[in-house]
């Protein structure tokens, strides 16, 4: 068994190798915060092993720990990327298109809606289409049709009351 490394030895190791280790890790991990995290974790592990008395070649251990932590970083990054791809793939599989039954119900509801709109008095139908399809304001509808805003509002209300007969409309 090795003799425990003295705290002064760890401090000397740190003083001698901190900058070269950081530069080495930074070349492998371009993101500064990632490199800082790996270097910090490397030193924490070196101190822990040194305190247990199992550290014999400080420099070699230091670079081996850093190498392993860099590999861990890339494995975790790959795992996160795969998780994102899995979610994306699942979203692609889930077809947002309505089921055939829903399309039939929608088509039936649309036919019913068309029939009600067609049965409206011509002026109410015109006001409804201008308001809901063309999205014109009541004042503009009144100007276009030569009627007052209040009259346009009354025609729109008449159309909306008639359309309340359509479930879900």
UniProtKB/TrEMBL annotation:
One GO BP annotation of this record: DNA-templated transcription initiation
Boundaries of every RNA polymerase sigma factor 70 region 4 type domain copy: 113-163
Protein keywords: Sigma factor, Transcription, Transcription regulation
Pfam family, one: Sigma70_r4_2
Occurrences of domain RNA polymerase sigma-70 region (ranges): 15-80
GO molecular function, one term: DNA binding
Keyword Transcription: yes
Signal peptide: none
InterPro entries, A to Z: RNA_pol_sigma-70-like, RNA_pol_sigma-70_dom, RNA_pol_sigma70_r2, RNA_pol_sigma70_r4_t2, RNA_pol_sigma_r2, RNA_pol_sigma_r3/r4-like, WH-like_DNA-bd_sf
Cross-referenced PANTHER family: RNA POLYMERASE ECF-TYPE SIGMA FACTO (PTHR43133), RNA POLYMERASE SIGMA FACTOR FECI-RELATED (PTHR43133:SF63)
Family: Belongs to the sigma-70 factor family. ECF subfamily.
Designated name of the protein: ECF-family sigma factor
């Amino acid at each position: 068994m090795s003799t425990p490394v003295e705290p002064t030895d760890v401090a000397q190791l740190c003083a001698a190798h901190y900058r070269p280790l950081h530069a080495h890790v930074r070349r492998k991990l371009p993101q500064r915060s990632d490199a800082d995290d790996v270097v910090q974790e490397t030193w924490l592990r070196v101190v822990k092993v040194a305190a247990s008395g199992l550290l014999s070649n400080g420099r070699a251990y230091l670079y081996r720990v850093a190498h392993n932590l860099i590999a861990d970083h890339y494995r975790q990054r790959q795992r996160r990327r795969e998780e994102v791809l899995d979610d994306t793939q699942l979203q692609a599989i889930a077809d947002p298109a309505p089921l055939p039954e829903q399309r039939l119900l929608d088509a039936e509801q649309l036919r019913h809606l068309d029939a009600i709109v067609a049965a409206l008095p011509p002026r109410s139908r015109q006001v409804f289409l201008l308001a809901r399809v063309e999205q014109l304001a009541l004042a503009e509808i009144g100007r276009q049709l030569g009627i007052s805003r209040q009259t346009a509002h009354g025609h729109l209300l008449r159309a909306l009351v008639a359309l309340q007969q359509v479930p879900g409309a």
